[in-house]
Automatic annotation (TrEMBL):
Annotated Gene3D superfamilies: Tetracycline Repressor, domain 2
Lineage: Bacteria, Bacillati, Actinomycetota, Actinomycetes, Micromonosporales
InterPro entries: Homeodomain-like_sf, HTH-type_TetR-like_transc_reg, HTH_TetR, Tet_transcr_reg_TetR-rel_C_sf, TetR_C_Proteobacteria
Signal peptide per UniProt: none
MF terms (GO), sorted A to Z: DNA-binding transcription factor activity; transcription cis-regulatory region binding
Protein name per the record: Transcriptional regulator, TetR family
Presence of keyword DNA-binding: yes
């Protein structure tokens, strides 16, 4: 058991170290020795776990996307029991999601994905399956329950989830100037409030009169 735990810990350290190096250097400039040093393991250990640099890169994307997904799924927890004020709950959830979208790791992951998509055309699918696709499914499940409970208008919960996320994330590309400008928390709250207001105009049974 101890040996198995140690192997898992080393693999995790390698993936975390690899992400830091790939994010700093890009794929082409990153070297396995630097990744090994960053992870605190010997270079052969990297190859023992992940065979080559391309395999390491793909597994790194998948691991980071999975961590990001887990955090975003946790951000949806208030929707399990939203209470009487649905608007406030949606604003809470939306704000949590925007903060995660704008954190350093998520921004680094997007920059890395954009820069290496030509070299790794499958990278988008790797990240999508461990990220936005799964998040939208989970959000659609929460909205379906709210529709059944009469808290939201009956309709397509998957479409509602897609539109909720688009209202949240859509304004950020322009506001962040393609990720080159940091957005402060007050501005994230403004984006969230506007997104929830628009969402409730379309989906609330009370037509945004308080949820």
């Amino acid at each position: 058991m101890t040996g198995s735990r140690g192997r898992i810990d080393k693999r995790q350290a390698i993936l975390e170290g690899a992400f830091r190096v790939f994010a700093r250097q890009g794929y082409a400039q990153a070297c396995v020795q630097e990744i090994a040093d960053e992870a605190g393991v010997a270079k052969p250990t990297v190859y023992n776990h992940l065979t080559d640099k391309a395999t390491l890169f793909r597994h790194t994307l998948e691991a980071v996307a999975q961590i990001a997904l887990n955090e975003r799924l946790a951000a949806l927890d208030p929707l399990h029991e939203p209470g009487e004020d649905l608007r406030a709950t949606l604003e809470d959830v939306g704000h949590r999601l925007l903060r995660l979208h704008c954190d350093d790791r998520s921004c680094a992951l997007r920059r890395l994905l954009y820069s290496e998509i030509d070299r790794f055309p499958d990278a988008l699918d790797i990240v999508r399956q461990s990220g936005p696709h799964r998040l939208n499914e989970a959000l659609a499940d929460r909205f379906a329950r709210l529709m059944l409970a009469g808290r939201l208008q009956a309709g397509d919960p998957a479409q509602a989830a897609e539109q909720f996320m688009a209202l949240l994330i859509g304004p950020l590309e322009a506001r962040s100037e393609m990720g080159t400008r940091q957005i402060d928390d007050a501005e994230l709250r403004q984006v969230t409030i506007a997104a929830v207001r628009t969402f409730l105009l379309a989906f609330s049974e009370q037509r945004a009169d308080g949820g």
